[in-house]
Amino acid sequence: xxxxxxxxxxxxxxxxxxxxxxxxxxxxxxxxxxxxxxxxxxxxxxxxxxxxxxxxxxxxxxxxxxxxxxxxxxxxxxxxxxxxxxxxxxxxxxxxxxxxxxxxxxxxxxxxxxxxxxxxxxxxxxxxxxxxxxxxxxxxxxxxxxxxxxxxxxxxxxxxxxxxxxxxxxxxxxxxxxxxxxxxxxxxxxxxxxxxxxxxxxxxxxxxxxxxxxxxxxxxxxxxxxxxxxxxxxxxxxxxxxxxxxxxxxxxxxxxxxxxxxxxxxxxxxxxxxxxxxxxxxxxxxxxxxxxxxxxxxxxxxxxxxxxxxxxxxxxxxxxxxxxxxxxxxxxxxxxxxxxxxxxxxxxxxxxxxxxxxxxxxxxxxxxxxxxxxxxxxxxxxxxxxxx
Amino acid sequence: xxxxxxxxxxxxxxxxxxxxxxxxxxxxxxxxxxxxxxxxxxxxxxxxxxxxxxxxxxxxxxxxxxxxxxxxxxxxxxxxxxxxxxxxxxxxxxxxxxxxxxxxxxxxxxxxxxxxxxxxxxxxxxxxxxxxxxxxxxxxxxxxxxxxxxxxxxxxxxxxxxxxxxxxxxxxxxxxxxxxxxxxxxxxxxxxxxxxxxxxxxxxxxxxxxxxxxxxxxxxxxxxxxxxxxxxxxxxxxxxxxxxxxxxxxxxxxxxxxxxxxxxxxxxxxxxxxxxxxxxxxxxxxxxxxxxxxxxxxxxxxxxxxxxxxxxxxxxxxxxxxxxxxxxxxxxxxxxxxxxxxxxxxxxxxxxxxxxxxxxxxxxxxxxxxxxxxxxxxxxxxxxxxxx
Lengths: 388, 388
Description:
Two copies of one chain form a homodimer. By secondary structure, chain A is an alpha/beta fold. Chain A is 37% helix and 18% strand. In chain A, helix 8 packs parallel to helix 10. Chain A is globular and about 60 Å long. At the A-B interface, helix 6, strand 6, strand 7 and helix 7 of A face helix 6, strand 6, strand 7 and helix 7 of B.
């Protein structure tokens, strides 16, 4: 299958592109290298030494004989280049990771809020408008977020995208309907994913675009089978307070003897998935495209849920690291339950990787190996959700 | 009250600015004159001869002694100018009309789709981000649209913004909750208004911004008490197939002896409000600002609902005009019911202007007076929702 991977230089996009290439798909990467630009802007960088895009592609060619072409295009800005690319390549499917993906970054200040809104919505909308204007029948697989559901309000096992509701109607019979699960995002970033859902619903309804939206939990892990094959293929490992995800940060903190920083009570429940499952889920979604006329397919791309404090205790027990409670920079409930349906991926099709000591050790070893690259000043999460 | 009116040169924004000024508020208009630019782009123009902004302001000063300052700022693009203006003026309230407001325009092609999404979402988001970054406690009144609810799916009297639903929960007791009425927009334009709702919900929840969102029906009429006071104050009258609203188009068609063009069956039900009620509702909303801590206030700003064919018959009876059914360019149900709650405005506070013959006559006279300005080629509605 011919597949364009938008955002194929990022933490999920890069290993997904390689995994799809390894499975025999004809993969092309499109990226504007914005994640590397933001690294420079924040004066932070991946703990692991990530190679240039040229070197990454050369390495993949060296180990597999396959070339994955790369196009440097900002799809949020350059609609003509995007349209030309789609018209020339005529992909069967596109995978859309080309969005700013950090909630703390999206709350840093007005410039970062505005960038996140404009970049993410224009990227998604340009892609949909270009597919329609080029007349492609192309399956769009998009990386959404569990954060669209919100953390404060569920009181139910959250379904996969659609909620069946009952409301009083005009007749004696109440109205019963499937609706998009009511969005309740807790950051600007997550809000853009909820707004993306409205773009998908409209283009699916009006133009018949076939779309799969994957509401992913917090990713942990770094390497996949493919990124391990050459040092130049190594994946990003973000440990900083803006882009680092919680479990990876704990493991890195343990590796360098820094207390595990738990925000607030730590009784916030979050959903997790290993990066190797991320790439498997993307492949699965591509193999199970919706048919013409189907509504938007929505999957919850999560393996398990945990309280943040329980994760910290687990890592502490494993490593002897101390735990430090710090004030939460976020504006969200200090404690929440979170339970998610994930049958479409993990009910029968796949077996998820769950928190496994061996895999955690692998990450901690990786963190130890590159500990010299760590700038301890970058560890605290400084962006606050509200000004004081 | 010190009020900034964003989009104060437009069809609703201009008469609203004058009405608020007439009521003694300290009004400043902010606009990038984009509606005049789009007139040139489409080679169409208002049937009524609209004066330049300088002449409009001079006329209002001549008849009232009051100056309404005007700032030419594109708030979707120039965040610094917007922030400076808010920081300098420190308004008590802002009225936000600064969005591309035609559904057919938003469906013309990829450029117009992209402009509508980027302009509308960045305008709304910049305004909210600027209010937060300047630390203003400022009431935001926004013109939304009944179109966020959609036309195909209600089977109920649509409430004002929030729907009480029941869904299966974790315990035996079902979950009962107020949610934003599930959006089901039928055009890119209406979709942006649904996406705006998510912006409002987030900024209200995270930053405590006080917001009123007015879901308005199709506006008819042209003049208000204020715009009638001087020929240079006259309001826009759009009759073209892109910006003209249905009832005004029928009246103009009758005035020039052009058959009333009904799209499809004409059994589509739509909601209507007179422009004089629009400006009264805006004033009412400003006088009834939500308190700190309140959720977003949502009103249905509509007076009545009618089937399009019934309107055509009404105008035909009045004028003898023929009715012509033309294929609908839209992708929407050919027939729908529409019933809307509007108690907050019209339950007790105000009495709406309904389609009575006297007012119809007034518009017909206006259309007749300026019939010579009409370019008949611009009457058909050419933008189609899907390419053939």
